[in-house]
Design brief:
2 domains, 327 residues, Aminopeptidase, alpha+beta
Length: 327
């Protein structure tokens, strides 16, 4: 599969959230795509967006780990992004892009382009991404660095469940996952059909890693991962609260970590967005995700949020100012 366009040259390799197939799945959920492209001297860039009432946002939903432009990390990419940002001033008064990665330069490049195009831009952290750089370790070597409580839990509980890791899509196993998820503490899925379609396509491409844990034949925990370009992505995980004492989620996670490290030989494991405390037990690095909020100062609808933003910035500066004595 290919990225939307022009993603070459970035420090981060293209992943599932860069492909045209991903944006097509998003469109099937009811989001109306607005795809803006620009080309010059053989270089191409694109922005996958959606628009409503003059407000433009990245084409994404809560399944998306990241959103970023498809543009080369080069002066040519900067020029193409600036041209697209300028054209968007004729389509809307506000553009909000999130969660944009910073480690590959994507957030900086977008902010520069929108500033150069005349937008008033604010960049701020909006989410957290926990990752594990494998650094050539085996699973056994990695596991020795985990917290003692986690290693003890696996040692005591591993024999309580039978674990299976699939590299293909299995409708029966997917039905087990959906039943577990529906009975778990997780909120209801917004677009379960989209997630299934994604898993089916990833299975057909050989990228799916589906884990299921059973106790006495009953499915009690399930996880959905994918592997692509030496990166493993943890998309979904759930377990039955009624069987929490089995720690099936821990046993299943360990089996999947072992598989993607020792068999797939991934270089990085990505736990998506969210700063849940349990992620720190498995991951070793944290990366911020950014919101790039762009307002067009020429348009009256932008004036009130601009004034609100400026006031908030002034208050922030006042808090940072040193206290003065009087009298």
């Amino acid at each position: 599969m290919q990225a939307l366009t022009g993603a070459q040259g970035r420090a981060s390799v293209p992943g599932p959230f860069d492909r045209t197939e991903w944006f097509a799945l998003l469109a099937q959920t009811g989001l109306l795509p607005l795809v803006v492209t620009a080309s010059d001297s053989g270089e191409t860039a694109a922005l996958a967006l959606t628009e409503s009432g003059g407000r433009i946002a990245g084409l994404r939903n809560w399944y998306s780990f990241i959103w970023r432009a498809a543009a080369p990390a080069s002066p040519a990419g900067d020029r193409l992004l600036e041209a697209m940002a300028r054209s968007l001033r004729h389509r809307g008064w506000r553009v909000t892009l999130e969660p944009v990665p910073g480690e590959d330069g994507a957030a900086d490049q977008l902010a520069r382009a929108f500033c150069a195009a005349g937008w008033t831009v604010q960049v701020e952290p909006c989410d957290t991404n926990h990752v594990l750089p494998v650094r050539g370790r085996s699973f056994a070597e990695y596991w020795q660095t985990r917290p003692g409580a986690l290693r003890t839990t696996l040692k005591r509980k591993a024999g309580k469940v039978a674990v299976e890791v699939l590299t293909r899509f299995d409708p029966a196993v997917w039905a087990e996952y959906e039943a577990i998820y529906a009975a778990s503490w997780k909120p209801a899925e917004d677009y379960p059909a989209m997630l299934r379609s994604f898993a089916e396509a990833e299975g057909a491409a050989g990228r799916l890693r589906m884990g299921i844990a059973r106790a006495d034949g009953m499915a009690v925990a399930a996880q959905v991962w994918t592997v692509e370009n030496s990166v493993a992505y943890i998309h979904k995980l759930a377990h039955l609260e009624s069987h929490k004492q089995l720690s099936a989620g821990t046993t299943l996670s360990a089996a999947l970590f072992r598989h993607v490290i020792d068999i797939d030989q991934t270089a990085l494991i990505d736990f998506g967005t969210g700063d849940q405390s349990y992620k720190a037990d498995w991951m070793e690095a944290v990366r911020p995700r950014y919101r790039i909020d762009c307002l067009d100062p020429r348009q009256p609808r932008a004036w009130a949020p601009l004034a609100k933003r400026n006031l908030a910035n002034l208050r922030g500066l006042a808090k940072l100012a040193p206290a003065r004595s009087h009298g």
